[in-house]
Amino acid sequence: MRRTLLLLSAAALAFVGFVQLGPQPSAPPDFGGTDVTTPDGAAAQPSAWYCPWVEAGDVVDTDIVVASLVTADVGLTLLDPVSNTDPVQFPFEVVGPGGAGVDVGSVSRRGESPAIVEVSDGPAAVMALQHSDGFVSGDRCTVSVPKRWYLTGGSTKTGTFTELRLFNPFADNADVSVTAYSEFDLDLVAELESFDVAGRSWTTIDMEPLLPFRDQLVFTVETSVGLVIPTLIRSDERGQASIPGSGPSTTWEFPIVTPGDLEPFISVMSAGGDDITVTVDIVTETGTVRNAREAVVGSETPALIPLSDIAAAPYGVRLRATSEVAASVIALVPEAAPDEVPGGPDDTTSTTTGEGDQPVEEPFLRGVAGTVGAASPSSQWIVPFDTLLDAATTVWIMNTGTEPATVTLQPLAENEEPPFDVVVEPETTLAVPVDVGLGIYGFWVDSTAPVSVAWEIVGDRGVALVAGVTAR
Amino acid sequence: MSMTSTRHASVATVVLADPAGGVEATLQALGRQVYEQVGVVVVGGSAVPDVEVSGRRVVVRDTVAEVMSSLPAHVTHVWMIREGAVPRPDTLSALIGDMDRTGASIAGSKIVRGAEETLVSVGLVTDAFAVPYTGMESGERDQGQYDVVRDVAAVAGVSMVVRRDLLAGLGGPDPEMTPRAAAVDMCQRARLKGARIIVSPASVVDYPVHRPTRYRWQDDASRIRSMMVVYGPLTLLWTLPLDFLIGLVEAVVSLFLGRWLVFDFFRSWGWNLVKLPSTVSARSRARKGRTEGDAELFRYQRRGSVRVSRLSVAVATSLRRRLPGDDRLSVESIGNDVRQPAFVIGLLALLFVLLSARNIWSDGLPSVGFTAPFPSDGLDALAGYAGGWNPAGLGSPEALRPLLAVSGLVKLVTFNAVALSEYLAVAGSMLLGIWGMTRLLRTWSVPAAPALIAGVVYVAGPTAQGIAGTTHIGTVIALGLLPWVLRICLAPLADGLWPGVVRFAGVVLAFAALGSLSPLALLVPVPVLVMYALVRLTDPRAWLGTLLALIGTGFGALLLQPWIWSSALRGVAKAGFAYWEVAPVVLVTGAVVAVAAVVGVRKEIGMVAGWASVLTGAGFLGARSGSFGLGSEFESVSLAVAGLGLAVGIGLVCERVTAEGIGTWRRLVLGVGTAATILLVVSSLTIVVPGRAGLPGDVYQDALGFTMAREGEAATARVLVVGPTDLLPGDSRSIEGGAYRVVSGTGPDLGEVRLAEPLAFDALLHEKLRAIIAGETRSAGGELATFGIRWIVVMGDSSGSDADETALAWRNVFAGQLDLLSLSTSTGYATFVNDTADVGRALTADFVPWQRVGWTYVGEPQQDGEVFVAENADEGFGPAPHDTVGGMNVVAASTGVVDYSPDPTARLQTTVAAIAIAILIIAGVVARRRR
Fold it and tell me: What is the DSSP letter of B299?
């Protein structure tokens, strides 16, 4: 009897043990920090800024501009195109509030060499401007490094080229997948599905052989391992524009979309949702045209919204969407006859066409410009910019609010410059020209109401649009 | 051969005094000699009776040299006889006669003892280490079997005749030596001079009293001195080191035979060191004018070592005595033993253990989970345990686990051998476990063969494999001790003080050893024995065993200080998640064995089987009790309990299945139980294939091996290991749902497995990691360089479609850093190296890294310089002045060594524990002898 009791006890213990459950599989760590997405890809903070589109060779030069509110040590690192070669380091200091520009060619002239700019303190921001005799392009550098990027504004229509520059400034190889969308919806390209970008290197993919004859091309760039900073470069015979990657947002503001009176388009892609209604408001210097245009964006179909027929330049754009979208502005020389184009930079050397064997000189317009917008207005901005002798630099401040915004502009220059105020009326955009030759490398923008800021450079070499950087 | 006539030999007799006395009997016997003696001189004696021998008064002298100088010129021979020896009347005449016939220079008598004429010596040979060997069985009687005059290496110093001129040349026996060694020594020296030594069996001396040397070490010391005196340099070159080694092995092995020879060993060598000058002069005298070389000495030497042979016999005898069965090992019984199942199974078990742990012999312990190689220096580990610095993670003054002290001791005993210590610990534990199970099962009269089978399943079966799978190496080793601990509590206790002392010392030491290996295992015996006592209510031994277990647990725990005062067993029990993944077939076979044992065994043992089955069930429940908040170390100890119960059940089933007179249905049940046992045995044998005693394969030595690519670099830096918790070495810390920990660049040793409570520097690392994870910095290399972290290894698969999500998340953290470089390693783990120039766990102000040697930092001394030591700040670091900067230590670089002053309280506690252990050992040994 006692033996039976013992045996039953043992069985009971074993049974209780048997029905016990194993440990729940632990959830993977929540390392959201590595995937922080600032929709517009940049914020003025002390950190490392990545500038994928930098080149200094026999034709092209690049200026890297740092604007900072405080004194900061800056380390400029230029990667070498030859693998396993040490990068070039160039340290310098920005005395705040102030700015400094570095001609990359004076540091290293190795052709393409994406840059990392480490700023020890902030608020600060960095931009890079490429220029040659034939074009000007550039944009603010990137500080946010999400795992998924959106790039809009591409095209491979005849005479137009689109490249993707994927810059991996980090240690590890990045396993990258690029997904392309065009007017034909999802464009599957096997070569873009999964490939490595080695650490501390970059790769540039020409889309023309892979996806020819696409009027619209937008991309998502994702990394399963590692990180890359992409930028889209669109070029044609008239110039070049670089458009950085961005995140998704339901609102986008573009303080200026008509640099040099080029013909603007808004390139929009869905960040996942289907049938997204996108509404465009045109913000001129005098007022706003609400709901000026509306488009429906499919989950795999981008939209290219023309704006030139809505209002007379100059103007900015506010975009509202029913779900998150990525958007950029692309400004092109109108396809109409050059003499029909009002304003716009032209090439003084001209091109010729024959008529009755007699050459006739016609102005050759230069200019392709593009940039991303601001996901939301802000009261404070840092706007690093560059000036060129034969070009006009203009800062645009757009106030989409209902109250006038008194904006204090503190020049960030090599030498101390006094601040000045401007007033931006509600639902207008305002141009603030920048004096060339004073060594001013940016503005600290402090507004009484949220505004959006961008700048343009227009000259004989071409046109560039560059987004500002919010000082969040 | 020249023959010297001794017909008219004139003999003087020298009686060598002996503290045991007996001079009267000797002198009377001398007076009865038929061969006339010139005179009798007593050397060294103080109380000589006023007697005459052959009409002459007995003279007393202090030394043999005095005797030699005072002898009349006509004396040709000297008879040296030991006080207490009783020569027969014709002893001297026989000696003189045989010397005369053979032309020998020294002749010795046959020595017998008592009326039964037990043979003591008929001449001696020695081995190469001057150990005398009679060649006789113990207690062999004189039946004339050795009665032939023959040449020998030496004769006993009890009775020998020496030619006077030879004795004068030799200077007599060495007064520094014990009598027997001195006789051998003198004979050896004589042979160097070309002398012939014989034994004369017709010359019989009764040496009635057994007179051992008072101190054994003196014999050894004299023997070593004798070697140094007579041997040539080449012979000494191999005999001395070999003799030292044999002595050491003998001292260690003798511990297990209940003899304490360690002090003897060291005293004998120490004595020779002190006496070295006189040995050198004695050697000079002995070898001056020699006519023969060492080859002559080798002529009468036996092969091998006499001490090794004796030790082997002693070990075999002891083993045989402890194994179940009545026969003792002897020449006659060997044949029978070999045919016994127990002997065969025992040999197979031994072979099984040797094979199962073979890769630990070659590679050492695998570095995986909570298992890691023992610290490279045993003294470091002991010093660390005794209040020293805890090197785990970023360091801490928190007490180390007693397992470290055990590993340090094993390392010391094996002269810091890399893998030998670990092999001894693991394989030794397995052997102990099998052996212990046979002893435990003897409590219930289970014979050797089934007990050995039970032992094999106990140390290698599914439960043991489960323990090894948890990688708690302490429990793996403690497994071998557990049955001994129970046996020592349950074994019959004889009456009297000394048996009580032996039992008390044994119980406390056994429990302390168990607890030091696995603190939770210390808590096992009491409930197990309480349960046993409850099922055997009327058995007083069960209750006594419970009492002893309580005593052992209490006192054993006290011996675990200082660790026991600074740690909570509750925390140890709750770390991790206890869940033993068991194959259904194992579950079924275990249940079948338990049922068969309870149902099939005889009635009086049935309750024991019931107790064993309850142990199995309770252990199984404990091993899966993670949902009750219990952890993996608790799981390992629970598995030990389950294994114990299962093994007892197996033993009982296997014992019963061969019995006669069992009913049909019961035999059927036992047959099924035996079939289940066979399955368990087969499952146990599977550990032979990997050869790591069931432990998983190495992970971290493989994963971190790349750090050795640049010589010396690994010793200057650390590795940050991240990834899934179960893939990290030992304890880990958690951040944002991910796990990380820091280990030495050379890979973690056992001292680094258990992390201490986090301190300020740990908190700083945590904060830096948080910032890196949050993307607040892209300069992880610079941030981590502060902590001496040169490498980052992401454990787990972090690439491809099958990538582990945790590993991938960690990889992405470090993939997005600017000052790290990705390393290609053959391990497949994502690995990064810090691209920051100055990384080191101890750096001077000008960024020169100091190496971690043992558990200290060593570098070039810098006068007025400073060293920044990336360990948690602690005032104990030196040399002074000590300062704290950024959570780390700054100390002077003047001596070239960063040291750590141990915590005086912890060191005192360790000393007290060590003294208590020593007292218990000595008390146990002494009491065992007196018992």
Answer: T
